[in-house]
Amino acid sequence: MELFSDLAGELGNILATLAAAVPFILGYVLLILLLLVVWKAVKRGLTPRRDFGSLKTVTFGDESAVNSNFAASVISVVLIFVLWGAFTGSKLLPGFMHAPGAYTGESSFTYTAMAEDGSTDDATVSVIIHAVGEDVDAPEMPLGDGFAKDDTMVVAAYRSELMRWDDNDEITRDDGAMITAVNGTPIEAGSPVAVDFGEVSLTGRGTLNVTPATGWQMEPIWLPPPEDVWSRLMEISTEGFRNSTLGEHLGYSLFRVIVGFVIGAMVGIPLGYAMGLSDWFRGWFDPIVEFMRPVPPLALIPLVIIWAGIGEEGKIILLFLAALWIMAIGARSGVSGVRISKVHAAYSLGASKWQIMRHVIIPNSLPEIFTAARVAMGVCWGTVVAAELVAAEKGAGMMIMTASKFQNTDIVIMGIILIGVIGFGIDMLMRQAEKWLVPWKGKG
Amino acid sequence: MSGLHIENISMRFDLPNGSSVQALKDVSLELKQGELMSVLGPSGCGKTTLLNILAGFLAPTEGQTRMNGHVVTGPDAERGMVFQQGALFEWMSVRENVSFGPRMAGQKPSQYMDNVDHLLDVVGLQEFKEKAIYELSGGMQQRVALARCLANDPDVILMDEPLGALDALTREKMQGLVLKLWKETGKTIILITHSVEEALLLGERLIVMAPRPGRIHKEYRLPFADLGVGADLREVKKHPEFGERREEILSMIWDMEEEIMGRQEAS
C-alpha cells in the first residue's frame, strides 16, 4: 500500500509539472493556428491551383484530402531552430529576436548596516556580472566613509555569490552589526529585495546573497546555441572525440547494426520459413519466439555484457537477438499469407515443391519480410545506441554518454541529431529499396 | 480410355465439435474429351469441393477420379485450373505468368515463346505482355489466367467461377472468349458458376447440384454453347428455349434455397 501512496505522490508531481507546462503548450498551439490563418490569407493571394484535391468540398473526414502541408512542415522546422536560437542567444539571429538574456554588466546596490548601538551607515556594493566562461577580476575601488565601507564583487551570469559585506567594515557582524535595508528597502532573511540587476537576499547568518537575473535564455550548459553545436560538429569531424574520429564513432555503430541485422535475418528468415511451412517447426519454435519477442532487447544488455563483455561480440549478439525474432515472425507471416489459390495454381501448372518455394512462396513473402526488415533496422539502431550508452569503446551512444559526463551539452545534442538523421536515413533507404525490389507490395 | 471419369465420389469430413459434414454423396460423371460442362447449384452444394477433388487438391473419402485411364491422386499439369481471382503471380510480368507452366517444365524460351505470344494474341493482351499484373484491370487479369492455363496445354480445364468478380459487360465478353477458346482448342472444360445464364451459355452439359448432401440433382444437354460460338451471346439469350430453361433452373434452385432456409429455421 505504501507503493500506491508513493506512486500517487509521483503522479501528483508529474501532473503539477504538466499543469505548469500548459500555458506554453497553449501558446505553441495558438502560434500554429495563427500561422495557419496567415498562410490561408497568403494562399488566397496566390493564384489558386485547381487540382482534383482542391475541388473537393468535403475535406473534413476525407482522409485522402489530408496531405501533409509542405509550408507547415517548413515553418515548423524553421520555428524549432528560431526558438532554439532565441532562447540560447544565438548569434545567427538578430538581437531583437532573442529572449531576454541573463543580466551582464556593471551595477550596484547600497546596503544599510546598523551597529549594536543603533547607529547606521550606508555603503555601496559595485557588482560586475560577466558572461559564463570569462574571467574578471574585481577592480580596486575607494572604500568610502562611515563604519560600513564600499564593496566590489564579481558574479558570473546564472550564478549567485555570497557577499561578506563586513569583511572590510570597521564594525563587523561579530561586533553585532547587521544589515537592515538594501537600496533603502528593509530586508530580512527569507524576503529578498529586487535590485536593478536581479535580487539580493539576506542569509540566516547575516551575509548577502547576490543573484543576478537569469532572464529567459538557457544557460549554454543546458542548451548551447545552434552555432555552437555546428562548430562542435566541425571540430569533432576533423579532430575526433576520445581518440576516434566522428566517422569512426558512427561507422562502428552502423557496422554493429548492419552485421547484427544481417546475421539476424540470415537465421530469422529460414526459421520463419520453417515455421510457416511445417507444423512441427511451428510447434517447436512458437513458444520460444512468442516468449522472446516481447522481451525488449534492452533488457538483454546486462546478460549479454555478463556473457560476452562489452566488445563487438556482445553488441552483435544483442543486435542479432533484436533482429532475429522480428525477421522470423515477418518471414512466418509472409509464408502463411500466401493465397492458397496461388499455390494451387502453381501445382496445377506442374510446378514441383521446390519450384513453388522458389517462384511462389519466396516472392510472395518478400513484402512482409521487407516490412519486418524496416522494423528490425529501426529497433537495431535504437538498441545499438542504448547498448553503447551502457558500455562501449566507440560508437554514437558512447560519444554522447561520455560527453554528458563532462557536461559537453553541445556534443550530446550534436550526437542526438546525428543519431536521428541516421535512423531517418536508414528508414528512407529501406523504403526506397522496398519500392525497388518489391513493387508489387500491397497489390496482390 | 480417354476422358474424365468420376466414379461414385463421396466426401465426408469431421468437424471439431464431433459431428461430420457430408459434402458430396455418390457423385458419378463421365466427360469425353472436348466436352464443355457447367455446374450450378445453391451455395453449400459441394461444387467447389467437387472441383477441388477433380483438380487433386482434395482426396475423396470414397470413390475415385480417373483421368485418361489413371487414378487422380494429386494436382497435375494435365488438369489446369482457372480461379476466380488473385491466383496470378503479381511479382511476374504478364508474359512470365503465361509462360509459367512451360518454364517450370524446363522448356527453353525458344520452345514456348511462339505459343505464349500466340495465346497473348488470342486473349488480346499482346500490347500488355511486359506489364505487371497489378497494372491490369480485373477482366484483363482473368484473360491472363486463361492464357496461363492454356499455355500449359492441359487436357482438362477446371474453372472455379472465373468470371464471378467481373462487371456484367466484361463478363459477357469473357463468356464469348471462353466459348471461342473451347472450340479452337478442343479442351474438356468444367466450369462452376453462380449465374444461371452463364451456366446455360457455357455448357453443352449443365449439371444442377443439390445440397446436404451435395449430389447431382439434374443434368441437361443444351444447344446454346454451340449456338454461341462466334455469335452474339445476346441473340442466343433470346432463344425461346433459353428463357424456359432459365426459369426452370432458377425455380429449382430457389426451391432448394427455400428448403435450406426452412430447415435452418426449424432447427
UniProtKB/TrEMBL annotation, chain A:
PROSITE patterns: ABC_TM1
The organism's place on the tree of life at top rank: Bacteria
Main location as per UniProt: membrane
ABC transmembrane type-1 domain location: 250-430
Subcellular localization: Cell membrane
Residue spans crossing the bilayer: 12-39, 70-87, 254-274, 294-310, 317-335, 411-430
Role this protein plays: Probably part of an ABC transporter complex. Probably responsible for the translocation of the substrate across the membrane.
Family: Belongs to the binding-protein-dependent transport system permease family.
Protein's UniProt name: Taurine ABC transporter permease
TrEMBL record, chain B:
A single GO molecular function term of this UniProt record: ATP hydrolysis activity
Pfam families named among the record's database cross-references: ABC_tran
Coiled coil residues, start to end: none
InterPro entries in the cross-refs: AAA+_ATPase, ABC_transporter-like_ATP-bd, ABC_transporter-like_CS, ABC_transporter_ATP-bind, P-loop_NTPase
Alphabetic keyword roster: ATP-binding, Cell inner membrane, Cell membrane, Membrane, Nucleotide-binding, Translocase, Transport
Domain ABC transporter: 4-236
Annotated PROSITE patterns: ABC_TRANSPORTER_1, ABC_TRANSPORTER_2
Homology family: Belongs to the ABC transporter superfamily.
Protein name: Taurine ABC transporter ATP-binding protein
Lineage of producing organism: Bacteria, Pseudomonadati, Pseudomonadota, Alphaproteobacteria, Rhodobacterales
